[in-house]
Amino acid sequence: MLSLYHVCLSIVHLELNDLTKALFHAEEAINYAKKNNERHWEAFSLWQLGMVGWKSQKIKIDEAEQDIEQGIRILNELEMKTFETMGYLYLGELFTDAREYEKALKNLKRAGKAFQEMGMDYWLARTQKVLARIN
């Protein structure tokens, strides 16, 4: 489960705006997930890599979008709808930060609807918080 620890460290360092460490841990998370055949953690790591890579200007928005979408596809294959939906929130956050509001709205509305249907109040509130940044 080293991949989980690294993805969590990446999330923390991103919140602290330490993009160098956040990127390092996202890359490590993917490496460990692949090595240990932990597909679900690979998906989370791809989301994190996309977000951190874009914020640190190491990758372009298109590549970040591809990373996150690849994570969503993995979770879809694994039939993990709850976590798949979180990927759409990540895409919405990415596009909101990039000021691509049409793409952001599409993904945030999709995530919000699914979170509401599943009774996932924390994630619904988080989605609504990002939506408020657009409106």
How many helical elements?
A: 7
Principal-axis shape equals globular
**Class by alpha and beta content:** mainly alpha
Helix content: over 70%
Q: Do you know the CATH topology?
A: Serine Threonine Protein Phosphatase 5, Tetratricopeptide repeat
Strand content: under 5%
Number of strands: 0
Keywords summarizing the entry:
135 residues; 0% strand; globular; mainly alpha; 7 helices; 84% helix; Serine Threonine Protein Phosphatase 5, Tetratricopeptide repeat
Task: Give the SSE layout.
Layout: H1 2-15, H2 19-35, H3 39-55, H4 61-77, H5 81-97, H6 101-118, H7 121-134
Helix pairs in contact: 1-2, 1-3, 2-3, 3-4, 3-5, 4-5, 5-6, 5-7, 6-7
Description:
There is one protein chain. The protein is built from seven helices and no strands. The chain is globular and about 40 Å long. The mean pLDDT is 95. The protein has 135 residues and is mostly helical. Helix 3 packs antiparallel against helix 4 and helix 5 packs antiparallel against helix 6. It has one domain: Alpha Horseshoe (Serine Threonine Protein Phosphatase 5, Tetratricopeptide repeat). The N and C termini lie far apart (39 Å).
In summary, what is this structure?
The chain is mainly alpha-helical and 135 residues long. It has one domain: Alpha Horseshoe (Serine Threonine Protein Phosphatase 5, Tetratricopeptide repeat), CATH 1.25.40.10.
